[in-house]
């Protein structure tokens, strides 16, 4: 009910359809269905209805609840069954539209007389085309810098992954190197004697390094916004080129740069990114972002490209005040993921990124599983966070660490999916 100029009236609009359906805690007879509530200006919610179908039959009501919480535990499900689930919001004004369908398969039915225990882990993927991975070496207790045990001693087996942490570099990359963008912006802004891309490349590298050392984590300690940090870096870049422009000239140049990185044309999303995220949604995996990029990437870039609806958490160094490989980044990711997967252990999170030190080593040191993503071809590992501004790291460099990093390096998210499929199905049984 609302008060209007001519009296009280009723807003009879039904609620909007829920979105972002995801399944967690999937077993062979139950799961937790989560969604995002999209309220309209109508009457308050009075509950939700869950509808389901199997095998292409008509949707039928599976259950309903008078709770207005955006999740529900579904029990009594058939094992090893593919369900298509939809959610409908209910209010006094009427029933809302049905949500988009979530497709999820329940776990396999365990036999009454199981065979002798057999350890089958992610390491045994010799039958997967294009992936040659040996048995995973056994892991003992891993001591973190916080004086606690990250992982308990366990056998030669990775536990089932329940959450996937992604670095932004797994999803997208800059279309152009930063120096090329700066050079084009300088021309557009009609700066006198605009610096060339060749001048800007070392100048930008030095400016960014100085900014990271003086104002780490995008000015976290100074309380800076992303724009303030990048403005300082851009001004230092021009100074490193021996240029000194007026405030008005610099503002004209920098606005053009900042607008570029606020547009879709600045980024290229990888073709396998959204299919992989769709698959994780169907499998009921909780997914989030853990990155050293600034907050603007999470608040603007990911929503602009349609990635945000797949994510349950967003961890950035600018907000945490630490940068990967610092383990606090992964602790924060674990804490956020635990909101969606109660009781989640760190070793049940898989982190995927393109930096050997920050993503692969950092995640493992914090007690997470990790895979290294190499989109640069057969012989190099490209750090796409730096958008081509730093030389690639060769596998020969990686081998110096003594880790079998090349073994755990995959070419794309399709191969990550294959690893997850094997790991989810082939457990201790």
Quick structural gist:
The protein is an alpha/beta fold. It has helices at residues 178-188, 197-214, 216-219, 226-240, 247-260, 273-283, 295-304, 317-320, 327-340, 356-365, 395-399, 413-425, and strands at residues 2-4, 7-9, 19-24, 31-36, 45-53, 60-65, 71-74, 82-91, 94-98, 102-105, 163-166, 172-174, 267-269, 286-291, 313-316, 349-353, 369-373, 380-381, 393-394, 409-410. The protein has three domains: 2-105, Immunoglobulins (Immunoglobulin-like), CATH 2.60.40.10; 163-171 and 270-425, 3-Layer(aba) Sandwich (Rossmann fold); 176-265, Haloacid dehalogenase-like hydrolase (DNA polymerase, domain 1, Orthogonal Bundle).
Give the fraction of residues assigned to helices: 25-40%
The CATH homologous superfamily of the largest domain is called HAD superfamily/HAD-like
Strand content: 15-25%
Shape: globular
Radius of gyration, taken over Cα atoms and rounded to an integer in Å = 25 Å
- In the CATH scheme, the class of the largest domain would be Alpha Beta
- Helical/strand content category: alpha/beta
What is the total tally of β strands?
A: 20
Tally the helices: what do you get? 12
Poorly predicted ranges (pLDDT <50, ≥5 residues)? 1-6, 111-157, 378-398, 424-429
Oligomer: single chain
What strand line-up does the widest sheet have? 15-14-11-16-17-20
Largest sheet: 6 strands, parallel
SSE order and pairing:
Layout lengths: L1 E3 L2 E3 L9 E6 L6 E6 L8 E9 L6 E6 L5 E4 L7 E10 L2 E5 L3 E4 L57 E4 L5 E3 L3 H11 L8 H18 L1 H4 L6 H15 L6 H14 L6 E3 L3 H11 L2 E6 L3 H10 L8 E4 H4 L6 H14 L8 E5 L2 H10 L3 E5 L6 E2 L11 E2 H5 L9 E2 L2 H13 L4
Parallel strand pairs: 11-14, 11-16, 14-15, 16-17, 17-20
Antiparallel strand pairs: 1-2, 3-4, 4-7, 5-6, 5-8, 8-9, 8-10, 12-13, 18-19
Helix pairs in contact: 1-2, 1-5, 2-4
């Amino acid at each position: 009910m609302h008060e209007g100029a001519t009296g009280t009236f009723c807003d009879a609009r039904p609620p909007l359809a829920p979105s972002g359906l995801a399944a967690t805690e999937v077993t062979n007879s139950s799961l937790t269905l989560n969604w995002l509530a999209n309220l309209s200006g109508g009457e308050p919610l009075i509950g939700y209805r869950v509808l389901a179908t199997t095998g292409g039959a008509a949707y039928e009501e599976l259950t309903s609840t008078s709770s207005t919480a955006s999740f529900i535990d579904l029990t009594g499900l058939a094992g090893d069954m593919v369900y298509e689930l939809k959610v409908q919001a209910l209010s006094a004004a009427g029933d809302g539209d049905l949500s988009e369908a979530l497709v999820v398969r329940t776990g396999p039915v365990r036999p009454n007389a199981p065979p002798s225990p057999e350890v089958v882990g992610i390491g045994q993927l010799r039958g997967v085309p294009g992936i040659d991975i040996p048995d995973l070496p056994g892991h003992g207790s891993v001591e973190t810098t916080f004086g606690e045990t990250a992982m308990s001693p366990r056998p030669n087996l990775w536990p089932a992954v329940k959450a996937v942490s992604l670095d932004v570099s797994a999803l997208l990359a800059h279309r152009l190197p930063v120096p090329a963008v700066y050079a084009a912006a300088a021309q557009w802004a009609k700066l006198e004697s605009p610096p060339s891309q060749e001048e800007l490349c070392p100048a930008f590298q030095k400016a960014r390094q100085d900014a990271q050392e003086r104002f780490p984590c995008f000015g976290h300690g100074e309380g800076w916004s992303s724009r303030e940090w990048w403005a300082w870096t851009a001004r230092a870049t021009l100074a490193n080129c021996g240029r000194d422009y007026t405030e008005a000239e610099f503002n004209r140049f920098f606005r053009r740069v900042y607008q570029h990185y606020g547009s879709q044309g600045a980024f290229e999303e990888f073709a396998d990114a959204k299919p992989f995220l769709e698959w994780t949604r169907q499998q009921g995996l909780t997914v989030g972002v853990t990155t050293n990029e600034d907050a603007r990437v999470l608040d603007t870039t990911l929503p602009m490209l349609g990635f945000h609806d797949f994510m349950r958490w967003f961890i950035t160094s600018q907000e945490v005040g630490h940068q990967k490989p610092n383990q606090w980044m992964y602790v924060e990711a674990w804490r956020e993921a635990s909101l969606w997967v109660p009781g989640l252990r760190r070793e049940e999170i898989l982190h995927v990124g393109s930096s050997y030190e920050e993503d692969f080593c950092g995640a493992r040191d914090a007690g997470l599983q990790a895979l290294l993503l190499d989109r640069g071809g057969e012989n190099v590992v490209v750090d796409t966070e730096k958008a081509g501004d730093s030389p690639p790291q060769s596998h020969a460099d990686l081998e110096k660490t003594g880790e079998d990093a090349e073994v755990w390096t995959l070419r794309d998210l399709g191969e990550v999916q294959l690893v997850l499929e094997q790991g989810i199905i082939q457990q201790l049984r």
